[in-house]
Every structure is written in structure tokens, then in C-alpha cells.
């Protein structure tokens, strides 16, 4: 199982550059940022691209209902992100999420020679991702439910007569009491989003049950072991107490691949 590392796109360029450089040196497979509202994740990801040569570069994910395919294509070209390393994540809320994602993936693939990753929560979106995507990004889920979701993706791929796409799982990681408090706060914010509230209810768990909240660095490896054989790559989304370079580098090092 490969391992990726992810940051909030709104963090400082210095933190993004330092974390990406360290992640590549330590053997991570990918480096990701999100796309939080007015913060342009593509611009943030370009900071990581400039510090690395091997790492795959993921954006998780651009919402198609606020930024359509043409604007995404323009953003990718404007930032000169390396298409061969880019994992272009997209997603959409309801209404019409399935149609918007299907059309969006087709439009992006017609204009960019890069891999398109679809964010998927429920069974219908997982099946659609299996049909059309190069990869699927799970988020806020347990290893047990990831197995179920992977089955839905596989069903979609089989129906489309294609190989199942690569499976990524965004797993939030916090180290220390203050960071774990921030993790709980973030879980509360997501619970208030209808789609995620329904997602947690469907799984029958609290948001923190899908995350790794460690008090000591040595606890991280055992927690990650629960994901072995479930997905192709776990992407560790850093949650820190004060968002300093030192805290983020400590997480990169504590969760490094074996």
C-alpha cells in the first residue's frame, strides 16, 4: 500500500514547499492539497511541484458546480503543473451530481492528458467513478466501509468493461492533544454538511472514528496497519495544532513509508 501526504491549500507556501520536499525524500508516493473555496488549490499545488521531481501531485478536490471544466483546464495550464504527475481531483454535490461528474470527467479528459480522480461517498457516485475515473478518492470513512465502497467502484468498472481505477483514501492525521482537538472540530464542521452527515449516519460512526488521532508518533504505524490491503494508497491529511513548519514536518516524518 502506497502512502501520500496532504495539506490544507490555504497554509503558507513555505509549509507546502518544505513538506513536499520532505515527503519526496522520505519515499511518499504523492502529495496533495485541497481546494477550499476561494483558495486556489492548483496554485498551492504548484508550490509543491517546484520542489519535487518524482511525487505525484494531487488536488482533492475541485467542485465542478463552482468551477467548470473549462476553468479547471485554464487553471492547470496557467500553473504549468506537470500533467504526467498530476492527479486532478473533481467532485460535485447534489443536485445533478452524477450528471455533472460524468460530463465533467469527459470534458477534462478531452482537453488534458492527465489522470482524473473522482471524489465518491455514496454507492451511486462510487459506481460512476468505477465507470469513468482514473482514480477514486474516498474521504471520511473507516477501513471497513472503504471495502464496501471499493466493491461499489468495482461494480461500476465491471459494468463498463474496464479495469477498476486506483483507490485513494483521505485519512486525517493528528499528533498531540491540541491537534486532536482541531481534528474533532473539523469533524463537527463536516457533520453539518448534509452529504457528510448522511455519510456518517450510513456508516454508524463519528467523524473522529475515521481518522488517526495519535498522542505519540509510535501509535501511527499501528493505526495505518488497519488500512493495509483495503485501498491502493492512503493519503494522510495533516491536522496540526498551530500549523507551523515544524509540526507539519514532524507529521511527514512520523507517518513516513516503511
Describe this structure in words.
The protein is α/β, with parallel strands linked by helices and 258 residues long. It contains ten helices and nine strands. The chain has helices spanning 13-25, 41-51, 69-79, 97-111, 123-132, 143-159, 177-191, 194-203, 218-225, 245-254; strands spanning 2-7, 30-33, 56-63, 86-91, 115-119, 135-139, 166-175, 212-214, 233-239. An eight-stranded parallel barrel has the order 1-2-3-4-5-6-7-9, surrounded by seven helices. Helix 2 links the parallel strand 2 and strand 3 (56-63). Helix 1 (13-25) packs across helix 2. The chain is globular. The model has no long low-confidence stretch (mean pLDDT 97).
Annotation keywords:
258 residues; alpha/beta; 8-stranded parallel β-barrel; 10 helices; 9 strands; 21% strand; globular
Concise overview:
About 45% of the residues lie in helices and about 20% in strands. The chain has an eight-stranded parallel barrel with strand order 1-2-3-4-5-6-7-9, surrounded by seven helices.
Strand order of the largest sheet: 1-2-3-4-5-6-7-9
Specify the structural class. Answer: alpha/beta
Low-confidence stretches: none
Biggest sheet record: 8 strands, parallel, barrel
State the shape. globular
List the secondary-structure elements in sequence, H or E: EHEHEHEHEHEHEHHEHEH
Helix content: 40-55%
DSSP strand count: 9
> Count of helical segments?
10
Global Rg: 17 Å
The pLDDT mean sits at 97
Amino acid at each position: 500500500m502506497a502512502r501520500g501526504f496532504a495539506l490544507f491549500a490555504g497554509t503558507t507556501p513555505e509549509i507546502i514547499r518544505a513538506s513536499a520536499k520532505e515527503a519526496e525524500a522520505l519515499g511518499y508516493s504523492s502529495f496533495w492539497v485541497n481546494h477550499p473555496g476561494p483558495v486556489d488549490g492548483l496554485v498551492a499545488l504548484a508550490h509543491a511541484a517546484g520542489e519535487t521531481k518524482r511525487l505525484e501531485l494531487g488536488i482533492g478536490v475541485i467542485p465542478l458546480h463552482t468551477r467548470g471544466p473549462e476553468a479547471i483546464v485554464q487553471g492547470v495550464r496557467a500553473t504549468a503543473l506537470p500533467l504526467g504527475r498530476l492527479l486532478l481531483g473533481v467532485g460535485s454535490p447534489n443536485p445533478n451530481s452524477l450528471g455533472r461528474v460524468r460530463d465533467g470527467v469527459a470534458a477534462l479528459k478531452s482537453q488534458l492528458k492527465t489522470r482524473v480522480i473522482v471524489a465518491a461517498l455514496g454507492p451511486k457516485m462510487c459506481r460512476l467513478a468505477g465507470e469513468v475515473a482514473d482514480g477514486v478518492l474516498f474521504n471520511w470513512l473507516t477501513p471497513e466501509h472503504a471495502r464496501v465502497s471499493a466493491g461499489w467502484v468495482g461494480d461500476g468498472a465491471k459494468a463498463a468493461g474496464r479495469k477498476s481505477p486506483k483507490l485513494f483514501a483521505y485519512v486525517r492525521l493528528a499528533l498531540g492533544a491540541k491537534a486532536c482537538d482541531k481534528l474533532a472540530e473539523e469533524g463537527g464542521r463536516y457533520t453539518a454538511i448534509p452529504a457528510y452527515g448522511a455519510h456518517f449516519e450510513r456508516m454508524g460512526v463519528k467523524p473522529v472514528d475515521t481518522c488517526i488521532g495519535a498522542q505519540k508518533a509510535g501509535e501511527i504505524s499501528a493505526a495505518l496497519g488497519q488500512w493495509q490491503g483495503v485501498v491502493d494508497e492512503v493519503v494522510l491529511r495533516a491536522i496540526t495544532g498551530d500549523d507551523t513548519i515544524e509540526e507539519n514536518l514532524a507529521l511527514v516524518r512520523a507517518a513516513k513509508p516503511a
